[in-house]
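DM from R.C. (forwarded with permission)

"hey, sorry to bug you on a friday — could you get me a structure for this? deadline for the figure draft is monday and I only need the backbone to look sensible"
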Amino acid sequence: MFDSLEILRMAQAYATHAGTRQQTIAQNIANADTPGYRARDAIGFGDYFQRLSESPGISAQRPAALTRVDANPVSRAPDGNTVSVEHEMMRGAETRQQHELALGIYSMARDLLRSSIGK
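My reply, with the result:
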């Protein structure tokens, strides 16, 4: 029964990762016209989950440690800016799906816990 609690913790981390990624995407779009700005993205969920396990407060203390500069940007403007608004919109859609999946997992685990205690 208590294995479900690990599922809840992982679903919460997955939703938090989606939030971090969405925030990074918003920063990229806000800086789409900033000369020399390099697009960023959140680190992969596996690395994110490992870092959260090692230091639980890292997402609140240093959110920049959970993002990285895109190594292979899809576009580069003459002024050095690497933000592609179209690419960021695709990332936003992926992130929304990631968040919905995390909420679905959380809801299923919650329902299992409720049924196990008889409510």
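R.C.: lifesaver. The longest helix spans residues 85-117.
me: no worries. The chain has a mean pLDDT of 85.
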